[in-house]
Design goal:
Layout lengths: L4 E4 L6 H9 L6 E3 L2 H6 L2 E6 L3 H10 L2 H10 L4 E5 H4 L2 E4 L5 E2 L4 E7 L8 E6 L1 E2 L14 E6 L1 E2 L6 E6 L3 E8 L2 E4 L7 H13 L3
Parallel strand pairs: 1-2, 1-3, 3-4, 4-14, 5-7
Antiparallel strand pairs: 5-6, 7-11, 8-10, 9-12, 12-13, 13-14
Length: 202
């Protein structure tokens, strides 16, 4: 198992539950906002939580936006959770709009269907394409979501879920993976995805 796994600390986010999930796998992550540590780590997790624009502002203040971008462009493993996935896109319309990292094409927007928001609870995952991080998932797998904004399925979407409309639940490009849901709170399904990602690092 790689020695240096970081949890990106940008002053927000639900880092504690992720750290707990990694510790249960005998991994002691380095919680850091140091851009060099993020760049040099064997794997970087970004457990985002909160508003898109505020998250991007916090990343830019710490120069972590460029660190994440460079990691992914270099093909270095990255795992973004919730807003940590959303920031990979071109931008978001949340609170008047904000620019993202532009790694994935598309804009994150509010659910347009007449559904209750936030989308909170368990939803079924539907695989779009085969991918190693999804290899252990069965046909009836559910994950825990908590969000009001979503990305529509695009070229890098590997699994979807439905809450009035289909949206991207898991994205992947190169060694980067993002989940709209919280795998650390998604019991067995989340464990399978985290384990598959960690296994890919060996």
């Amino acid at each position: 198992m790689p020695r240096r796994i970081v949890a990106i600390d940008y002053g927000g986010g639900n880092i504690g539950s992720l750290v707990g999930a990694l510790r249960r796998r005998d991994i002691e992550p380095i919680v850091t906002d140091d851009r060099d540590a993020v760049l040099q780590a064997d794997a970087a997790f970004f457990p985002g939580d909160g508003a898109f624009a505020a998250t991007m502002d916090a990343l830019r203040e710490r120069r972590l936006d460029s660190a994440i971008y460079e990691r992914i462009e270099r093909g270095r493993p990255y795992f973004g959770i919730c807003v940590g996935m959303q920031v990979l896109f071109d931008g978001s319309s949340e609170f008047g709009g904000a620019r993202g990292l532009g790694i994935l094409r598309g804009e994150v927007g509010r659910f347009e269907s007449d559904v209750r928001l936030p989308h909170m609870g368990w939803n079924r995952l539907e695989r779009s394409v085969a991918h190693p991080v999804l290899a252990e998932l069965g046909e009836e797998e559910y994950a825990y979501f908590l969000h009001s904004y979503r990305a529509l399925p695009g070229d890098d979407c590997i699994a979807t879920a439905t809450h009035g409309e289909r949206f991207a639940a898991v994205v992947a490009r190169g060694a980067a993976v993002g989940t709209q849901f919280h795998p650390e709170k998604s019991q067995r399904s989340g464990e399978k995805i985290l384990n598959a990602f960690l296994a890919s690092l060996n």
